[in-house]
Amino acid sequence: MSTVGETPSVLHPLVAKYLRKERMPHMACPGCGIGQVVHAVLLAVDELGLTPKDTVWVQGVGCNSRITYSTWVGDNVDAHHGRMFAVATGLKMARPDMNFICFTGDGDCGAIGGNHFIHACRRNLDVTAILFNNGIYGMTGGQVAPTSPVGAVTTTTPYGNIEDPFDMCQMAVTAGASYVARWRSTDFKPLVNSIKKGIQTKGLAFIEVLLQCPTNFGRYVLKTSNPQDVLKWIKDHTVTQKEAEKVSREELAGKYLIGEFVYRPERSGIVERYQEFLKLHQKE
After folding, report:
1. pLDDT, tens digit, for every residue of 113-151?
2. DSSP 205-271
3. Domains identified in the chain and CATH numbers
């Protein structure tokens, strides 16, 4: 096993192909689920035959963005906090031929960036957005996030959170995204397939991933730093949509539904409409 700052002698083929060798291993905390999600993204990109020449990563501010901008060998843009969708909109409108994969956290997307997120769904922006949801502000000290569960003890809610969390997937569905899904970091094959489906979908593909944060969510909310304990908590608080049909609404309280929620590839988006708009009015 290598330690932080050391480069492994033998790199995984995906890492050697897509990531900067001198930047490995990445900066995520031990036990964090970010590495699992990045692995899934790289596998999806590789299976679709995409390359760093035609794929750009756009990221907001958070633990996940530190991995992206420091490791991806191709172009990437590090947006201001909460402004990832605004930046991605400009990039995709200018270069509709490029693939844009966006990384955002639950705080970046659901709090300061919430309005940009809603309007990106409304416009059905043709990008693939992956939300890293660890239920807390992981990078800045374990503050309460808009996705933190009721009762969660954090550095800013020492007596427990009294606010209901956002359901980011339902918000995306309601606002108009073409493809919306939620998985756990341990649902590796479904996650890879979902990312591939999202990249191939015209319009906004929003994929939320529930992942373990032993450093802050574990420490403050669950009183443990063991990533396995955090994974068990996530498993105990998630149900598939089929399982949800068999239980009462009361039993679903505090649970996360996982799976695909909507797939409407027929819905056009702002990028496609803008290209048609240009063709029409450039003749004038």
Report:
1. 999 999 999 999 999 999 999 999 998 899 999 999 999
2. EEEEEE---IIIIIIIIIS---HHHHHHHHHHTEEEHHHHTTS-TTTTTT-EEEEEEEE-TTS--HH
3. 13-282 (3.40.50.970)
